Amino acid sequence: MSVEPAKKKARSMAKIGTHNGTFHCDEVLACFMLKQLPVYKDAEIVRTRDPKLLEECDVVVDVGGVYNPESHHYDHHQRSFTETMNSLQPEKKWVTKLSSAGLVYLHFGHDILAQLLELPSSDPVTDLVYNKVYENFVEEVDAIDNGINATDEEPRYKISTNLSSRVGGCNPKWNEKNVDETACFQRAFDLVGAEFLDRVNYYKTSWLPARDVVLKAVNARKEVDSSGQIMVMDEGGAPWKDHLFTIEEELSISPPIKYVLYADNNGNWRVQCVPLKLGSFDNRLSLPEEWRGLRDQELSTKSGIPDCIFVHASGFIGGHKTYNGALTMAQTALKLAEKCEA
C-alpha cells in the first residue's frame, strides 16, 4: 500500500507521536518500523500525552485511545479494542491481541519489508517473510505487552531475557535522578532496531536460500534409503526444520521423515531426529534408548556399529565418523522401532 503522512500543517519534517514516561517494547518497535519507511525516515519522535501536541503529529502510536488507520492513530489500550491479525486480515491465522507494534506491522509491514528486502511489497517472498517475522518476532511483543501468557500451564522456568524485558531495563531506575529520558528511549530504539533488522536479514540471507537445499534433500530421500524416512543435507548448517514441515505438507509426504544426516564442521557426520513440531523437544522417533548417553567404543559395542562417536542423553542427535556409519545408525534405529511396533 502507499504510505503517506496524514495531512497536517505544512512543515519539512514529519512527526511520530507516542507517550512519555515509562516506555515499552511495543511503542519503541512501532517507532523504529515506521522510520524504515522513506516518508517517516527523518520523522521526529514526539513523546507526549498532550492531546494538542499529538494532534500535530502525522502518526500516533500507543497513546490517544484511538485506533483509526485512516487518520494514522494506532493505540490499543481502549476497552473496546480486541483486534488481532486474524480479525483485521482473515487470511492470517494469528489471534493474539495486537499491541501498537502489531498494528503498525499489520498496516505498514509489507512496505517496511519491501524496503529492507528490496522487493515489491506484493512479491510472494515479501509476504512469506512478513508471516515469519510476525510469528517469530512481533507476535511475542504483542503478547507480552497485552499480558498474554505463552502457556495456560504453570511455566517450568521464567524467561527474563526476552526483548521486552531488555527494553524495560532501558527505562530510568526508580531511584535515579536527573536522567535523560530521551537518551534512554534512544538506547531502547537502537536495541529493538538492531534485533528487528537482524531478524529480517536472517530470513532474507539465510532462511530463504535454505529452502532449495531442503527441497533437494527431500526429493532425493529415497536414493538415501528406500523407506524415504532418512534425508541427507548437503549443507549441514542450513536451517531445515521449518522448511521440512512446510515441504512435507505441500508434497503430502508419507511416512514422514524421521532422521536428517549432515556433516559437521570437523568432517564427522550427525544423525538428527526430526521433532514432532517446530520448537518441540519431542521427536518423531528418537534414537534408541539403549544408545543414549554413550560414547565412542562403548556406543559402538552396544549398537554393533564401529566408529560411533556419541548419542545425546535425550536421544535427539548422534554422531559418527563417516557418512555410511551415520546412515547405518539411522537405518538401525528405524529397524529397531519397527521391531518394537511389531
Structure description:
It is a single chain. This protein is α/β, with parallel strands linked by helices and 342 residues long. Helices cover 43% and strands 11% of the residues. The longest helix is centred in the middle third of the chain and has 39 residues, at 181-219.
Estimate the mean pLDDT confidence: 94
Number of helices: 11
Radius of gyration: 25 Å
| Helix/strand/pairing category | alpha/beta
Q: Estimate the helix proportion, in percent.
A: 40-55%
* Low-confidence runs of at least 5 consecutive residues: none
Outline type: elongated
Which labels suit this protein?
single chain; 342 residues; alpha/beta; five-stranded mixed β-sheet; 10 strands; 43% helix; 11% strand; elongated
Overview in brief:
With 342 residues, the protein is an alpha/beta fold. The protein is 43% helix and 11% strand. It has eleven helices and ten strands.
SSE arrangement:
Blueprint lengths: L14 E4 L6 H10 L9 E4 L3 H5 L3 E3 L5 E2 L4 E2 L10 H4 L11 H18 L6 H22 L17 H6 L12 H39 L1 H4 L5 E3 L8 H11 L7 E5 L5 E5 L22 H8 L4 E4 L5 E4 L2 H19 L1
